[in-house]
């Protein structure tokens, strides 16, 4: 089921990657944030360029018609998962969908690695560093400012039943709250080249302009 065309990464765990692309991007004027262009390329392409170093199996979590992704170069063969929980409960539903897909379609994989679709500067070593610290629990990234990054985390597929219970029965919605209920390891990451926060996320047009500036500055 390889869908990225790259070899498995040199890390202790080869996870299934799920890119969380389900938001409506209201602050960006609506539509799919991940398909907005950054340096002439969809933001999703920047994220996936990093992911190819961590895994050979990638999923997208998104609401609505998956065809809008399949019509974009480089995304045609990536499975797009809809939420399996009603009422659009947020990123946890996307993580659950990826866990359940993995249990059924790739049962040899023990973990799911989640990242947002709007973080184009993710650390190149993200996958291996989280994998090295996961153990039997959840490994979550921590930015250079000490801030936790709940949606940038490595999740054991074995937690899927607990997560479904939390979403459907308990009504839990916060990613960090669910993670805190289980064995959790925070993995700190330093700033990137030029002091860029590797978890800088694009929330609005001003952020997109800032990301353009950062890319231009990084080019020789």
From TrEMBL:
InterPro entries: MobA-like_NTP_Trfase (IPR025877), Molybde_CF_guanTrfase (IPR013482), Nucleotide-diphossugar_trans (IPR029044). Its main location: cytoplasm. CDD domains: MobA. It catalyses: Mo-molybdopterin + GTP + H(+) = Mo-molybdopterin guanine dinucleotide + diphosphate. The keyword Transmembrane does not apply. Residues 18-177 form the MobA-like NTP transferase domain. SUPFAM superfamilies: Nucleotide-diphospho-sugar transferases (SSF53448). Its EC number is 2.7.7.77. Mg(2+) binds at residue 118. It holds the Pfam family NTP_transf_3. GTP binds at residues 20-22, 33, 83, 118. One of its GO terms (cellular component) is cytoplasm. Keywords: Cytoplasm, GTP-binding, Magnesium, Metal-binding, Molybdenum cofactor biosynthesis, Nucleotide-binding, Transferase. Transfers a GMP moiety from GTP to Mo-molybdopterin (Mo-MPT) cofactor (Moco or molybdenum cofactor) to form Mo-molybdopterin guanine dinucleotide (Mo-MGD) cofactor. HAMAP family: MobA. Belongs to the MobA family. This is Molybdenum cofactor guanylyltransferase. It comes from Niveispirillum lacus. The lineage of its organism: Bacteria, Pseudomonadati, Pseudomonadota, Alphaproteobacteria, Rhodospirillales.
């Amino acid at each position: 089921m390889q869908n990225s065309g790259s070899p498995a990464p040199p890390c202790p765990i080869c996870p299934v990657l799920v890119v969380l692309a389900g938001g409506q991007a209201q602050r960006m004027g609506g539509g799919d944030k991940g398909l907005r262009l950054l340096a002439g390329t969809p933001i999703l392409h920047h994220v996936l360029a990093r992911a190819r170093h961590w895994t050979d199996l990638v999923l997208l979590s998104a609401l609505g018609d998956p065809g809008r992704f399949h019509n974009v170069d480089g995304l045609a063969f990536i499975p797009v998962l809809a939420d399996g929980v009603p009422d659009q409960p947020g990123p946890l539903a996307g993580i659950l969908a990826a866990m359940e897909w993995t249990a059924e379609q790739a049962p040899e994989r023990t973990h799911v690695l989640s990242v947002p679709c709007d973080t184009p500067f993710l650390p190149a070593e993200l996958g291996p560093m989280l994998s090295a610290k996961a153990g039997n629990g959840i490994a979550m990234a921590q930015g250079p400012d000490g801030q936790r990054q709940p949606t940038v985390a490595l999740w054991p597929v074995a937690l899927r039943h607990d997560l479904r219970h939390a979403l459907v029965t308990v009504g839990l919605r916060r990613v960090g709250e669910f993670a805190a209920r289980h064995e959790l390891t925070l993995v700190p990451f330093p700033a990137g080249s030029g002091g860029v926060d590797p978890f800088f996320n694009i929330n609005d047009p001003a952020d997109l302009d800032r990301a353009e500036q950062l890319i231009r500055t990084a080019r020789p």
